[in-house]
Design brief:
Distance between the termini: 33 Å
Strand order of the largest sheet: 1-2
Number of strands: 2
Order of helices and strands: HHHHHHEHHEH
Number of domains: 2
Oligomer: single chain
Shape: elongated
Protein backbone atom coordinates (compact mmCIF):
# COMPACT_ATOMS: atom_id res chain seq x y z
CA UNK A 1 0.00 0.00 0.00
CA UNK A 2 1.90 3.04 -1.23
CA UNK A 3 1.42 6.15 0.82
CA UNK A 4 -0.33 9.03 -0.77
CA UNK A 5 1.95 11.97 -1.47
CA UNK A 6 0.03 14.08 1.04
CA UNK A 7 0.25 11.50 3.76
CA UNK A 8 3.95 11.10 3.11
CA UNK A 9 4.46 14.87 3.40
CA UNK A 10 2.59 15.01 6.69
CA UNK A 11 4.66 12.15 8.03
CA UNK A 12 7.87 13.79 6.85
CA UNK A 13 6.87 17.06 8.50
CA UNK A 14 5.98 15.53 11.82
CA UNK A 15 9.03 13.24 11.87
CA UNK A 16 11.51 15.96 11.01
CA UNK A 17 10.27 17.67 14.15
CA UNK A 18 10.46 14.63 16.43
CA UNK A 19 13.58 13.05 14.92
CA UNK A 20 15.53 16.24 15.19
CA UNK A 21 18.85 14.99 13.85
CA UNK A 22 17.53 14.43 10.32
CA UNK A 23 16.46 16.99 7.78
CA UNK A 24 13.31 16.55 5.70
CA UNK A 25 14.92 14.88 2.73
CA UNK A 26 16.71 12.42 5.01
CA UNK A 27 13.46 11.66 6.78
CA UNK A 28 11.79 11.06 3.44
CA UNK A 29 14.59 8.70 2.36
CA UNK A 30 14.28 6.75 5.61
CA UNK A 31 10.52 6.43 5.21
CA UNK A 32 11.00 5.16 1.66
CA UNK A 33 13.69 2.74 2.79
CA UNK A 34 11.35 1.54 5.52
CA UNK A 35 8.53 1.00 3.02
CA UNK A 36 10.83 -0.82 0.61
CA UNK A 37 12.12 -3.14 3.32
CA UNK A 38 8.62 -3.78 4.60
CA UNK A 39 7.36 -4.52 1.10
CA UNK A 40 10.14 -7.07 0.62
CA UNK A 41 9.17 -8.97 3.71
CA UNK A 42 6.13 -11.12 3.26
CA UNK A 43 4.94 -11.49 6.82
CA UNK A 44 1.82 -10.66 8.74
CA UNK A 45 3.31 -7.55 10.27
CA UNK A 46 4.31 -6.17 6.92
CA UNK A 47 1.49 -3.67 6.86
CA UNK A 48 2.61 -2.17 10.16
CA UNK A 49 6.35 -2.43 10.16
CA UNK A 50 9.37 -4.48 11.09
CA UNK A 51 9.18 -7.54 13.22
CA UNK A 52 12.17 -8.66 15.24
CA UNK A 53 13.77 -10.79 12.52
CA UNK A 54 13.46 -8.20 9.85
CA UNK A 55 14.90 -5.56 12.13
CA UNK A 56 17.73 -7.85 13.08
CA UNK A 57 18.55 -8.49 9.41
CA UNK A 58 18.62 -4.74 8.84
CA UNK A 59 20.90 -4.12 11.83
CA UNK A 60 23.13 -6.87 10.58
CA UNK A 61 23.30 -5.83 6.94
CA UNK A 62 23.31 -2.07 7.44
CA UNK A 63 25.34 -1.71 10.64
CA UNK A 64 27.32 -4.93 10.89
CA UNK A 65 25.79 -6.02 14.20
CA UNK A 66 26.12 -9.66 15.07
CA UNK A 67 25.35 -10.08 18.74
CA UNK A 68 21.85 -11.57 19.13
CA UNK A 69 21.31 -10.43 22.70
CA UNK A 70 22.25 -6.86 21.86
CA UNK A 71 20.26 -6.80 18.62
CA UNK A 72 17.27 -7.96 20.57
CA UNK A 73 17.80 -5.16 23.08
CA UNK A 74 18.19 -2.59 20.31
CA UNK A 75 14.88 -3.83 18.93
CA UNK A 76 13.22 -3.29 22.28
CA UNK A 77 14.72 0.14 22.62
CA UNK A 78 13.36 1.17 19.22
CA UNK A 79 9.98 -0.48 19.90
CA UNK A 80 8.67 2.27 22.15
CA UNK A 81 5.12 0.96 22.51
CA UNK A 82 6.20 -2.66 23.06
CA UNK A 83 3.97 -4.10 20.38
CA UNK A 84 6.81 -6.27 18.98
CA UNK A 85 6.75 -4.35 15.77
CA UNK A 86 8.69 -1.26 14.74
CA UNK A 87 6.53 1.32 13.06
CA UNK A 88 7.85 3.90 10.62
CA UNK A 89 7.80 6.52 13.39
CA UNK A 90 9.75 4.30 15.79
CA UNK A 91 12.18 3.54 12.97
CA UNK A 92 12.98 7.16 12.10
CA UNK A 93 13.02 8.40 15.69
CA UNK A 94 15.13 5.43 16.76
CA UNK A 95 17.64 5.98 13.97
CA UNK A 96 17.86 9.66 14.81
CA UNK A 97 19.44 8.78 18.15
CA UNK A 98 21.16 5.64 16.89
CA UNK A 99 22.98 7.42 14.07
CA UNK A 100 23.23 11.04 15.17
CA UNK A 101 22.26 11.25 18.81
CA UNK A 102 23.91 13.72 21.14
CA UNK A 103 26.14 12.21 23.79
CA UNK A 104 23.28 12.64 26.25
CA UNK A 105 20.84 10.73 24.01
CA UNK A 106 23.34 7.99 23.28
CA UNK A 107 24.09 7.54 26.98
CA UNK A 108 20.36 7.10 27.64
CA UNK A 109 20.04 4.73 24.72
CA UNK A 110 23.02 2.53 25.64
CA UNK A 111 21.90 2.42 29.25
CA UNK A 112 18.48 1.25 28.13
CA UNK A 113 20.01 -1.42 25.91
CA UNK A 114 22.22 -2.71 28.73
CA UNK A 115 19.54 -2.64 31.43
CA UNK A 116 18.27 -6.06 30.37
CA UNK A 117 15.39 -6.33 32.80
CA UNK A 118 14.43 -2.67 32.71
CA UNK A 119 14.78 -2.08 36.46
CA UNK A 120 16.83 1.09 36.08
CA UNK A 121 20.17 -0.55 36.95
CA UNK A 122 22.83 -2.47 35.08
CA UNK A 123 23.55 -5.31 37.47
CA UNK A 124 26.60 -7.49 37.72
CA UNK A 125 24.61 -10.35 36.11
CA UNK A 126 23.56 -8.15 33.20
CA UNK A 127 27.15 -7.07 32.56
CA UNK A 128 28.23 -10.67 32.72
CA UNK A 129 25.54 -11.73 30.22
CA UNK A 130 26.48 -9.07 27.71
CA UNK A 131 30.24 -9.38 28.00
CA UNK A 132 29.99 -13.14 27.76
CA UNK A 133 28.31 -12.76 24.41
CA UNK A 134 30.44 -10.02 22.98
CA UNK A 135 33.86 -11.43 23.80
CA UNK A 136 35.54 -13.99 21.61
CA UNK A 137 36.14 -17.31 23.29
CA UNK A 138 39.85 -17.83 23.82
CA UNK A 139 40.99 -21.41 23.36
CA UNK A 140 42.84 -21.48 26.64
CA UNK A 141 42.78 -23.84 29.61
CA UNK A 142 41.36 -21.42 32.10
CA UNK A 143 37.65 -20.91 32.60
CA UNK A 144 36.56 -18.08 30.26
CA UNK A 145 33.91 -17.05 32.77
CA UNK A 146 36.68 -16.07 35.19
CA UNK A 147 38.03 -13.51 32.75
CA UNK A 148 34.57 -12.08 32.27
CA UNK A 149 34.03 -11.84 36.03
CA UNK A 150 37.30 -9.89 36.22
CA UNK A 151 36.09 -7.51 33.53
CA UNK A 152 32.83 -7.01 35.38
CA UNK A 153 34.79 -6.19 38.53
CA UNK A 154 36.94 -3.70 36.64
CA UNK A 155 33.85 -2.08 35.12
CA UNK A 156 32.21 -1.77 38.52
CA UNK A 157 35.37 -0.35 40.08
CA UNK A 158 35.57 2.25 37.38
CA UNK A 159 31.89 3.10 37.00
CA UNK A 160 30.02 2.33 40.23
CA UNK A 161 30.38 5.70 41.94
CA UNK A 162 27.97 5.07 44.80
CA UNK A 163 29.44 1.60 45.46
CA UNK A 164 26.15 -0.26 45.57
CA UNK A 165 27.39 -3.08 43.35
CA UNK A 166 25.36 -2.05 40.31
CA UNK A 167 25.26 0.84 37.87
CA UNK A 168 22.47 3.36 38.12
CA UNK A 169 21.87 5.73 35.23
CA UNK A 170 23.74 8.41 37.17
CA UNK A 171 26.76 6.13 37.59
CA UNK A 172 26.74 5.24 33.92
CA UNK A 173 26.31 8.81 32.78
CA UNK A 174 29.10 10.12 34.99
CA UNK A 175 31.47 7.38 33.86
CA UNK A 176 30.80 7.99 30.18
CA UNK A 177 31.10 11.76 30.55
CA UNK A 178 34.50 11.27 32.19
CA UNK A 179 35.56 8.72 29.60
CA UNK A 180 33.55 8.60 26.37
CA UNK A 181 35.00 5.23 25.39
CA UNK A 182 32.90 3.65 28.14
CA UNK A 183 29.71 4.39 26.20
CA UNK A 184 29.69 0.91 24.70
CA UNK A 185 31.45 -0.76 27.60
CA UNK A 186 29.15 -3.78 27.58
CA UNK A 187 28.99 -4.52 23.87
CA UNK A 188 28.51 -2.81 20.53
CA UNK A 189 24.99 -1.43 20.27
CA UNK A 190 25.69 1.61 18.11
CA UNK A 191 26.66 1.54 14.43
CA UNK A 192 30.35 1.61 13.67
CA UNK A 193 31.73 4.84 12.31
CA UNK A 194 31.16 4.02 8.66
Amino acid sequence: AAMSRRKLQQLVDSLSRSAKHFNKSEVECLIKLFNTLVAKSSNRFAAVGFDRNMFRDTLHSAFGMTDDVLMDRVFRTFDRDNDSCISVVEWVEGLSVFLRGTLEERIKYCFEVYDLNGDGYISREEMFQMLKNSLLKQPSEEDPDEGIKDLVDIALKKMDYDHDGKLSFMDFEKAVRDENLLLEAFGPCLPDIK
